[in-house]
Design brief:
- The protein is mainly alpha-helical.
- It has a domain of 58 residues.
- It has two helices and two strands, in the order ααββ.
- It has a two-stranded antiparallel ribbon.
- Helix 1 packs antiparallel against helix 2.
Length: 93
């Protein structure tokens, strides 16, 4: 009976530790993915800004908004005013 109890406790501890490890791995994966997407967006938008290609910037915003991982994507001026939102309406172009 003691051996079964020890086995159940050990199984519970190992299950908990395994879940925590898996959770950390998923967090790390999604953080790295978010950083990569962010770098790509910055690179593409920077090129559009240097060329004053507003349509290209909007196309970039539209493309990345289709990604499930992207919740919102907006560009702000140095003064904090929304410059591009990729939609019609206040602040959007």
């Amino acid at each position: 009976m003691i051996a079964i109890s020890i086995g159940v406790v050990c199984f519970g501890i190992m299950t908990y530790l395994s879940d925590r490890f898996t959770e950390r791995q998923f967090e790390k994966f999604y953080q790295e993915k978010a950083l990569l997407i962010w770098k790509h967006i910055i690179h593409e938008i920077e090129g559009g800004m240097l060329l004053k290609d507003h349509a290209g910037i909007l196309d970039t915003l539209k493309l990345y908004r289709t990604y499930n991982e992207v919740i919102a994507l907006r560009i702000f001026s140095a003064k904090g005013k929304e410059a591009f939102a990729g939609k019609q309406g206040p602040g959007g172009h």
